[in-house]
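USER:
I wish I could look at a protein chain and see how it folds. I am handing you a single protein, as its sequence and its fold in token form. As I understand it, each token names a local backbone shape. I hope you can help me see how the letters and the tokens relate. The protein I mean follows directly.
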Amino acid sequence: MRRPELAALLAGAAGVLCFAPFDLFWLAPLPWLALFALWRQAPDARRAALVGFLFGLGFFLAGVSWIYVSLSVFGGMPWWLAGPATLLFCTAMALYPTLAGWLFKRWQPAGFWRQALWFAVLIAAADWLRGWLFTGFPWLAIGYTQAPPSPLAGFAPLIGVYGLSLLLALSAALLLRWRVGLPVLALLLATGFGLRQLEWTQPVGEPVSVALLQGNIPQDMKFNPDNFVRTLLRYRDMIAAHPARLTILPETALPAFLDRLPPEYLDELSTLARQHGGDIVVGTLTGNPETGYYNSAVSLGSAPQQTYSKQHLVPFGEFIPAGFAWFMAQANIPMSAFSAGPSRPAALSVAGQLVAFNICYEDVFGEEIIRTLPQAGMLANLSNTAWFGRSLAQPQHLQIARMRSAETGRPSLRATNTGMTAIIDARGDVVSALAPFETAVLTGEVRAYQGSTPYIAWGNLGFLVLLLAGAGAAQIRRAASAAGSPAPGADARP
């Protein structure tokens, strides 16, 4: 392996340090600065594509290694199949920076400023494309490195996480010439800090007491029939010991179909909720062979029973893509054939509040979260990340949730099986959180918020306008500029 290719692989792996749990957000420009320098120095588009591929491979192998944990340790897949499957997935994700590298060199503009802008456009476009193509995998979009407390988080309510990817990549590229890059980065940080002081949304009504349950049920015991009654009793006792107006249990906390749960047990939970004039939202399974099976959140208590069913399903985890039944036969993943819930879900009216619920992986998709806003006053996520063990997945997921709050100006409630159970304020800061892999209840008081951020109103449209404007500015008169300038790649001075 040549020195540039090795540097790309190592720089990609180092990029993971900028995300949770390491949270070195201030380091984030450096790995992408290295990628920009390597692309500029590449002699042709093929070599730039190879550099992009190795950067992406190092990045995803280091960042989403928990996929192997879910397949092998908890999914029961033999290591000799889980290992190659994880490598194949990371290889597929690395194709996005591969394409970006090829495009950068194929249409590399003349002039440092245009090259930096073209680089930023391609990096941000790759993040955005990865977020929706083939159902989407937006995990580790580089904008997440700038979740609060980064000053750049001030831009989140305007242009969302992909807009932050654009700003970060531009800053990184400009730092190649530090006399130019440092003032630009300082200006962006100062502007972001100023935007963080704006109140896009306002609290409304009285605080509501909440209890978020972390049952800490081991994944290998979760669907074990011998552990079923013990699981139900654990959650019942936790609810009784921590009364609140709004109590939320994790995803599939009650590991059975709703109509197969003991009616007296559900009546007991409803009674506990009504004693405090509130509601309990439980993660469970709903549906039947005729209508399909759903991963759902169901309310019990003072309000009429309501159901939210997960609508953005995880490939292989919750549905089997066509032609891959043989692959899933090698794993022991229960309930991997769900149907998608309504694509335009309604917020649930619980504990006197309108709450926008989502389940597990769904809060990675910012434009889907805003479908029930601005009507809903808070966000709530039910997750079971026990599938990923003691890996990077849980802190990374909490960082994603913080970004959703920063984008929408809404507090977030996260009830998880093994972590990270947390209360996040409307600015995206963690108010309180439970230690992972402990059986505990997080209690607190949360106020709903009203109003709308630009991101709620426009979603990713603001980012896409910036992206197209940046692409146009980078490529305008490219051919004419190239006629009187050095060939692409020749201007590689730092």
